[in-house]
Amino acid sequence: MWDRKTLLSASQFSRADVEEIISRAARFKQKTERLCNGKILANIFFEPSTRTEKSFQAAMYRLGGNVISHKDAGSSREKGETKNDTIRILSSYADIAVIRDSEEGKTQEYADIAGIPVINAGDGGNEHPSQMLLDAFTIKENVGRLDDLKVLFVGDMRHSRTIRSLIKILSKFRNNAMYGVHIGDSGISGDIEKLVKKVSPVSSLRGMIEELSPDVVYCNRIQKERLKGETASSYMIDGGVVEIMPENCILMDPLPRVGNMDPRIDSDSRAAYFKQAANGVPMRMAIIAEMLKAK
Ligand code: NCD
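That is the input. Now the predicted structure with N-carbamoyl-L-aspartate docked in place:
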């Protein structure tokens, strides 16, 4: 069961935990409640962000709280201060911290240093659990269930933390069949490989869609910043690809899209990525409220 002290990984969650937080996010979507008056959230980002950082900020404001933000530029990190010291100091100014870092697997160490509830906002190519929860929320809302799904992941199956976290959580539900179309030549990462039924090269994208009739196609850009001397082929979900998706399939992407999706498909009813991004605010309200035990 999720202890609500940290949000670091999909492994902390049972399906009941996911269902419970989705219900809370759905309630916040209907009605904002200022449950965190006087509380401060520290947004500590050692890697770039638009949606994650700003939706945590908007969520805290909607809950009536305040936000302090750290980015290395203009901070004492430019004088050589360590990440650990930066986290220790900013956490002493706040009630809850959101931390994004390029290093994988250091989130527990950061949580120990912080001594306040800590949310992993992405640790390298490892995990992105708050995105995972808003992705699950979006699937539940738009497909109607989290069991009996056929999900086709399209992207950098080795380095995408959003794909990794979502595969891990969907594997805790019943009868979900997950497939991958892998972009890049570095192979799929070991820990999710066993949870995915089949991984095919990008040339089989259309064939996979036709063969599977998926409920969800989940796309993510090539994670250029994590490629170490590997090459990555480019790909594009365009009108021709969307056309062969079933009518009630949803197309998701955590964004940003960088050449991986044609903006001309935005008006297609299957395109769910802007709704998905908007769901970041109510889901992050739910996460903050749960972790601050704000009732
Ligand atoms: C994702 C991330 O940072 O992993 N973005 C996000 O949080 N919405 C996806 C990405 O950068 O490709």
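The chain has a mean pLDDT of 95.
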